[in-house]
């Protein structure tokens, strides 16, 4: 599919915002949805809608097939060994919270360590803080290099034989760096720890093979990868999931319920209490079909080119501070920046008047903001539907922003 064919798949892009054609550069927050996904969800509600795993009636069977069919698509997408290892959740946040509240709460004791990094998203910090408080374990941070990358020497120096859990994002939603999670998993395993990967910013953009990475858990969100909001995935190795207790209890997840005791269904359903997110899963399955049709390698290459182009164009604007490595080879498709002393919210507001959507704020990474010594930044993030023209418009908008604020002061 060429870029124009891809863009045609995203009806939302074909509109004006504030009198200008929309330039959507906020896909790291959430991606837009292709027709295939919109139509799959529409068709599900028009023709299939029923609850799953219960009645024997025909629609119930169709809904169950659609829901479980989506699970198989996801299994294949991340190369998990079995669909028993693929649990549907609300998204990355719920997936990481599940590992913390179930695996970590049961396996950590005083003196044990959880290791994360300074660049993590809040959803890969706070669940570990909470479980550290409950268990007496200690939370430790792998430091960052000056350019915001991780060094394996620092990883080795931080992980010890007391480390039980290492949890690291594969791609940073602020710095755009790609972390060597496969190598970190190996170091974690050498010390007897398990490896959790936050794949929120990687699963939408690059091929992930959980067997090759040898991660123990992987968390990601459907809405950042062309799927609907409200659906995500927790992958876990079967032997770990089998020994974990569910964190939610109720319908769907039980085998027998006695008056004072109950037993659980087998994997993956013991972790899916209540009526699941059926339409969301069907939509995510359609998103995966779409991403496979375009090809993850093509998507990664396209974004990589865009990031290199944007880095060059943006760095040429005087007064621009770009965070993270300036080496395009080390980056994924997003660029976080500040311009002169203009507050990033003002940058985003001026750009919005031009129809350009970027995010401004702390990006749910306050420890990283403190490390960068800024309170907030602006961020442009790219996906398969963005073009060099989008970046040219962004750069024009940034030059305008600078001029506008130099008039004010
Ligand atoms: N981990 C990373 C690396 C993220 O970028 C995000 C969301 C999450 C976890 C949480 O995902 P959720 O789907 O459960 O909310 N990141 C962003 C962002 O950068 N801007 O808006 C949301």
Annotation keywords:
409 residues; alpha/beta; Aspartate Aminotransferase, domain 1; Aspartate Aminotransferase, domain 2; seven-stranded mixed sheet; 14 helices; globular; binds ligand 7TS
Topology:
Blueprint (H helix, E strand, L loop, with lengths): L2 H6 L7 E2 L2 E2 L1 E2 L10 H14 L9 H21 L7 E4 L2 H16 L5 E5 L8 H10 L2 E5 L9 H7 L4 E7 L11 H10 L3 E5 L11 H4 L3 E5 L10 E5 L1 H5 L11 E4 L4 E3 L13 H17 L1 H20 L4 E4 L10 E6 L4 H10 L2 E2 L1 E3 L4 H7 L4 E5 L6 H21 L1
Parallel strand pairs: 3-15, 5-6, 5-7, 7-8, 8-9
Antiparallel strand pairs: 1-2, 4-10, 9-10, 11-12, 13-14, 14-17, 16-17
Helix pairs in contact: 2-10, 3-10, 4-5, 11-14, 12-14
Bound molecules: ligand 7TS.
